[in-house]
Automatic annotation (TrEMBL):
<dbReference type="InterPro" id="IPR050549">
    <property type="entry name" value="MFS_Trehalose_Transporter"/>
</dbReference>
<feature type="domain" description="Major facilitator superfamily (MFS) profile">
    <location>
        <begin position="1"/>
        <end position="181"/>
    </location>
</feature>
<feature type="coiled-coil region">
    <location>
        <begin position="65"/>
        <end position="92"/>
    </location>
</feature>
<dbReference type="Pfam" id="PF00083">
    <property type="entry name" value="Sugar_tr"/>
</dbReference>
<keyword id="KW-1133">Transmembrane helix</keyword>
<feature type="transmembrane region" description="Helical">
    <location>
        <begin position="25"/>
        <end position="44"/>
    </location>
</feature>
<feature type="transmembrane region" description="Helical">
    <location>
        <begin position="111"/>
        <end position="133"/>
    </location>
</feature>
<keyword id="KW-0472">Membrane</keyword>
<keyword id="KW-0812">Transmembrane</keyword>
<dbReference type="InterPro" id="IPR005829">
    <property type="entry name" value="Sugar_transporter_CS"/>
</dbReference>
<dbReference type="GO" id="GO:0016020">
    <property type="term" value="C:membrane"/>
</dbReference>
<keyword id="KW-0175">Coiled coil</keyword>
<protein>
    <recommendedName>
        <fullName>Major facilitator superfamily (MFS) profile domain-containing protein</fullName>
    </recommendedName>
</protein>
<dbReference type="InterPro" id="IPR005828">
    <property type="entry name" value="MFS_sugar_transport-like"/>
</dbReference>
<dbReference type="InterPro" id="IPR036259">
    <property type="entry name" value="MFS_trans_sf"/>
</dbReference>
<dbReference type="GO" id="GO:0022857">
    <property type="term" value="F:transmembrane transporter activity"/>
</dbReference>
<dbReference type="InterPro" id="IPR020846">
    <property type="entry name" value="MFS_dom"/>
</dbReference>
Length: 181
């Protein structure tokens, strides 16, 4: 939900700002959050899960958990759970992956469905319409200025995402995928 909502907000924000700011400057401005995020990554501790897999239970894991949790949090239970997960992961790794697994129905069926969903999402034409929406409105001879028409469309996309995201959680993805398909 957050990813999709963030995407629609970003598109709407850029379309709205483009009424007053040239696209070149918008591009430069879009670099700022990336630079800030990259700089902030220095202060983020290593993942306790990764540390546990790499080094086992050690002071670095405890310190990373303490940085990520509240000061009064009891991290002992979480440490024990992490150790159990790592043990299970290592036991599972020993079984390995082979091409024969792709012949199993419980593997190839969800893989095929996932790949088809990705294919149809990418080739549905949504991105082409989004990228060329201003030109489409110009060619269509809209009574509304194309820049404003794009903002109206993107506002409706934002509202639909705001309403649709909780619906996905309530109704489930399968029924919504079937209906939208």
């Amino acid at each position: 939900m957050t990813f999709t909502l963030g995407g629609t907000v970003g598109i709407l924000l850029m379309n709205t700002l483009s009424l007053w700011v040239r696209w070149e400057y918008l591009g430069y401005g879009a670099i700022v959050p990336s630079v800030l995020l990259s700089g902030a990554m220095v202060f983020i501790p290593e993942s306790p899960n990764w540390l546990m897999v790499k080094y086992g239970r050690c002071p670095r894991v405890v310190e990373a958990l303490r940085q990520l949790r509240h000061r009064e949090s009891d991290i002992e239970a979480e440490l024990a759970e992490l150790e159990a997960q790592v043990t299970a992961l290592k036991a599972q790794k020993d079984s390995g992956f082979s091409a024969k697994m792709l012949r199993r129905q419980d593997v190839y069926k969800p893989l095929t469905i996932g790949l088809l969903l990705c294919f149809f999402q990418q080739f549905s034409g949504t991105n082409a319409v989004q990228f060329y929406m201003t030109g489409i409105f110009m060619d269509a001879g809209s009574s509304l200025q194309p820049e404003y028409a794009v903002i109206v469309v993107n506002t409706s996309m934002f509202v639909a995402t705001l309403i649709g995201s909780p619906l996905v959680d309530r109704l489930g993805r399968k029924i919504l995928l079937v209906v939208s398909g």
